[in-house]
Amino acid sequence: MSFAATVLTLFPEMFPGPLGTSLAGSALARGDWSLRAYDIRNHGLGRHRAVDDTPAGGGAGMVLRADVLAAAIDAVSPAGDARPRLLMSPRGRPLAQSRVRELAAGPGAVIVCGRFEGVDERVIAGRGLEEVSIGDYVLSGGEIAAMIVLDACVRLLPGVMGKTASGEEESFENDLLEYPHYTKPRDWEGGGIPEVLLSGDHARIARWRRAEAERLTRERRPDLMRKRENSENGA
Ligand code: SAM
User: Fold this and answer.
1) Structural domain contains residue 12
2) Across all residues in the chain, what is the average pLDDT?
3) CATH number at residue 191
4) Measuring CA to CA, how many Å separate 218 from each of 102, 112, 207?
5) Mean pLDDT of all residues in 15-42
6) Per-residue pLDDT tens over the stretch 186-206
7) Residues 152-179: pLDDT tens digits?
8) Which of 13-17, 137-141, 230-234 has the lowest mean pLDDT?
9) What CATH number does residue 17 fall under?
10) What Å distances lie between residue 25 and 14, 33, 79, 190, CA to CA?
C-alpha cells in the first residue's frame, strides 16, 4: 500500500510545488505515494464562500471557522480513515525524525494548513487533529510546513532513496548529528581529506565517524546529547 497524503488548504494550486520535482516528484510519478490537495473553500459559506470570521473576544486578524474546516475534513477523511490528521501549527509539537519515521511507516496523512490567525480551537479536538510545528518561527500559512512534513516522510518510503542513502546514519538517528563528508578533489584550497578516510580500514573509519558525530552533537546540540545520555542511563 502506498502512502496517501491529503492536504487541506486554501491554496491547492501551491501543490505539488517542490514535491513534484527530484526524489519526491519521481516517487509521486511512480505511484510510491499519492497527493491530493483539497480546497477548504469548497465548503465555504454563502455567495463569497467565506471560510473565516473575526475572533471571538476581539483582536486582530481572522480565524478559520470550525464548521467549514470540519466539513472539509469530513469530505476527505471520513470516520474510519486510518491516517493521522495533522494540523500545521507553530504551537504544535516540534517535528522530529522519530515522528517522521512513524508517519512514513503508516498509511499516509491528512494535513490541514492553517491561514490567518489560525483555526477555531473546537475543530482541533472535534476532528482529532495533532498539532505539528516545523520550528519556532511563524510562517504565513501551513502549506510550506506541510510540504516539509511530506518531503521528510516521502524520502523514507521504501525504494525512494535507494541504497546510497538508507537514512540509518543520518542526522537525528540515535539522537546524533551526522559526521562530516568529503569527496574529490583530494586537496582543495589547501585542505585535505582526513587520512583515516583514505585508509580503507572500515572499522577505523566507522570509529572516526562515530567520534565526529558525537563531537559535533556535543558542540552544536547539547540538548540532543543529554537526551541520548539519559536514554542510555535508562532515565
Ligand atoms: N497566530 C498564530 C500563532 O501565533 O501561533 C500564527 C498563525 S500563522 C500566521 C498561519 C498558519 O501558518 C498557522 O495556522 C499554521 O498552519 C501555519 N504555520 C505558521 N508557522 C508555522 C510553524 N512554525 N509550523 C507549522 N505551521 C506553521
Assistant:
1) yes
2) 96
3) 1.10.1270.20
4) 26, 36, 16
5) 98
6) 999 999 999 999 999 999 999
7) 999 999 999 976 455 677 889 889 999 9
8) 230-234
9) 3.40.1280.10
10) 14, 10, 30, 39
Residue 128 has pLDDT above 80, yes or no: yes
In a shared domain, residues 186 and 76? no
Nearest alpha carbon, ligand 1 atom 7:
117
User: Same domain for 149 and 173?
Assistant: no
> Nearest C-alpha to atom 19 of ligand 1 is from which residue?
139
Q: What is the pLDDT at residue 171? A: 87
Domain identity same for 89 and 114: yes
Please provide residue 63's backbone torsions phi and psi, each rounded to the nearest 5 degrees. Answer: -130, 135
Nearest CA residue ID for atom 5, ligand 1: 90
Report how many domains make up the chain. Answer: 2
Distance 22 CA to ligand 1 centre (A): 27
Amino acid symbol at 132 = V
Q: Same domain, yes or no, for 145 and 36?
A: yes
Listed residue (1, 5, 4, 2) closest to 147, CA to CA:
5
87 alpha carbon – ligand 1 mean position (Å): 10
The finding on whether 18 has its CB within 6 A of some atom of ligand 1 is no
Domain that holds residue 39: 3-154
CA of 142 to the centre of ligand 1 (A): 6
Q: Which residue has the cell 513534484?
A: 20
Residue 129 Cβ contacting ligand 1 at under 6 Å: no
Residue of minimum CA distance from atom 17 in ligand 1: 142
135 lines ligand 1 (CB under 6 A): yes
Quote the CA–CA distance of 4 and 35 in Å, as a whole number: 6
pTM of the model as a whole: 0.96
| 103 and 176 belong to one structural domain | no
